[in-house]
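Review form for a predicted model. The reviewer records the input and the model, then writes brief findings.
Reviewer: anonymous (R2)
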Amino acid sequence: MSIILRRCTTCKKEKPLSKFFKDKIRKYGHRYQCKECGGKYQRTERYKKYRREWQKKHPDYWRKQHYKIEFGSSLEEYNELFEKQNGCCAICERHQTELKKRLAVDHIYNTKQIRGLLCEDCNLGIGRLKDNIEILKKAIVYLQKGV
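Model under review:
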């Protein structure tokens, strides 16, 4: 079994692929800088300042990339779903204006199929209960018993 090597664009050393972060956007599936060089650069004040300024100029870029990579979806599809749900969480029906964070995309874990938009509390709740209907039923019975 041969080890695949890649040359880091910063230190110019050839290293095994395990020394490079995976990156679905890149042509060959890994970043061009090794983990060591990339980490050093990202800790510099110059990079941090550049990143803050860039994010102010492009506020939706990362959201678009995240939806595309994670769900094979687009920001437009998110906005359509947001309108369909009237800007409310699909479970508790709290409106976006009542929340600190924007509604999260809820999806089936292994298929990445989008179910709806949820507030952080509802999304974490069903996620921590492992999307398991039986556990959710037991939780309902438990809550109905009262104190």
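Findings: Residues 13-51 form one domain.
Further findings: The chain has two domains: 13-51, 58-145.
Recommendation: see findings above.
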